[in-house]
User: Fold this.
Amino acid sequence: MSRAKIIMLVVYAVLALLALTQGGSAVGDWSLWILLGLAAVHLIEVAVFFGFCRNAGGSLPVHLVNVFFFGILHVNEVKAAQATG
Assistant:
């Protein structure tokens, strides 16, 4: 897993922790809204890159989950792997 993906997972974890532990406060509310916004954007990316994931080879569900969590980072990694392999 790339460093960028690990950083994204840490950011998601921090936002989720803040949303869960600081519920009702400004920090908790903003964290929740940021998470919901990111989820919406990544769902759009899943729809946009569905055809790419279907043609990429490997497991379609795994590709779709990776696009949901990492977006264009996953797509770029798959493209790079296809170009070298």
User: Anything to note?
Assistant: The radius of gyration is 15 Å. The helical segments are 3-21, 26-48, 50-55, 60-70, 72-84.
